[in-house]
Design goal:
Elements: E1 4-11, E2 15-22, E3 25-26, E4 30-33, H1 36-45, E5 52-58, H2 65-72, E6 77-82, H3 84-93, H4 101-114, H5 125-156, H6 162-191, H7 194-204, H8 211-221, H9 230-237, E7 241-246, E8 250-256, H10 262-278, H11 280-291, H12 296-317
Parallel strand pairs: 1-5, 5-6
Antiparallel strand pairs: 1-2, 2-3, 2-4, 7-8
Helix pairs in contact: 1-2, 5-6, 5-8, 7-8, 8-10, 9-12, 10-11, 10-12, 11-12
Length: 343
């Protein structure tokens, strides 16, 4: 008899739903708080002497990261962090139409039992620290954008008192100082790691990627397993198209799957937007797609995919950005023709 037990854990912000199959027998569902204390309770519950537990989680964000880190340190526990898209397709194959936490935990347990095991690669402490810094930088940028919009609206309204305008200005100054401080700390962190230093320089060679975007991209890509292929990066980012086809009667337009890391998608959006205006090769590729009838946003998403493929190749070959590898120009006119970008 195999000494392998399987477990699926559905992760949410406050709760962990655990479905355990031990020696071929399903145990009752268990619920644990998603806290350090709850993680400790799970670590005491899962292992049994002489047996190995294979645990499957979904890579849905930060809520499961601390749990995955704790599980990976425990002897006798194997951890697999599955792409949500793969889990969703697996659930469809099992004819699971309903969705709730207990059912999802059961699907993850079956995924661990039936699918090829892909061990989760624990990121380095530096990569984890940069990941957290990059996420915080993005939050601050969003807060700053919202506050700037409020300041603009306040400047146009006679009903807003001066004290509110001054408070908005103070808030923006504080956010700007926080952005500068966190960016400095991120750069210091990168400088301590030779691989990150090289990759940061490679990112800086891409038209459209500035310092903030480079930190955010490096923070998201640095926690990925080192053996992933470019198409797996694309799937992880949720930038792969999803088709709807059934027989000869149902043919819906392909849509973006979005079943992946939204932070990585957001980190790619602004560089793609700038690149189509300033890089001749990606600009020509964008206009080529528009000429074929693609909508502006569809073409921009395709540029984001191209950019992600380029970054994967650059990191693998240790070579700076070369737009000619993405899209070759047919004529000098393509270098100077510009098209309005999606708003």
């Amino acid at each position: 008899m195999s000494n392998l037990d399987t477990c699926g854990i559905e992760v949410s912000a406050k709760k962990l739903v655990v479905r355990m199959r031990r020696q071929e027998d399903l145990e009752p569902l268990r619920n644990f708080p998603n806290t350090p204390e709850g993680h400790g309770m799970i670590l005491r519950y899962l292992p049994r002497a002489g047996r190995v537990v294979r645990v499957c989680l979904e890579s849905t964000g930060l809520y499961g990261l601390d749990l995955a880190l704790a599980l990976s340190e425990q002897e006798g526990i194997e951890v697999m962090v599955a792409n949500p898209r793969a889990v969703r397709h697996f659930a469809h194959a099992l004819m699971r139409r309903s969705k709730n936490d207990p059912l999802d935990a059961g699907v993850l347990e079956e995924f661990a039992a039936r699918m090829p095991f892909q061990p989760w690669v624990r990121p380095s402490p530096t990569a984890l620290a940069l990941h957290a810094l990059a996420r915080r930088l993005r939050e601050l940028v969003e807060m700053q954008t919202a506050e700037k919009n409020r300041q603009h609206a306040a400047g146009l309204s006679q009903a807003i008192p001066a004290v509110v305008r001054r408070d908005l200005a103070r808030s923006l100054r504080a956010q700007e100082r926080a952005l500068q401080r966190l960016t400095r700390q991120a750069r210091q962190l990168i400088a301590q790691d030779p691989q990150m230093t090289e990759r940061f320089a490679l990112l800086d060679s891409v038209p459209g990627i500035g310092e903030t975007s480079a930190v955010q991209l490096l923070g998201e890509l640095g926690v990925l397993a080192p053996d992933l292929e470019a198409r797996q990066w694309v799937a992880y980012a949720g930038l792969d198209p999803r088709e709807y086809t059934s027989g000869s009667s149902l043919h819906k337009k392909p849509r973006l799957s979005k079943a992946g890391n939204k932070h990585l998608r957001h980190a790619l959006f602004m560089p793609a937007l700038v690149a189509v205006q300033h890089d001749p090769h990606l600009g020509a590729f964008y206009r080529h797609l528009l000429a074929k009838g693609k909508f502006k946003m569809q073409a921009l998403v395709a540029v984001m995919r191209k950019l992600l493929h380029a970054l994967h190749a650059m990191f693998k070959t240790h070579q700076p950005y070369d737009g000619s590898q993405l899209f070759r120009l047919n004529s000098p006119a393509q270098e100077v023709t510009h098209a309005p970008v999606a708003s």
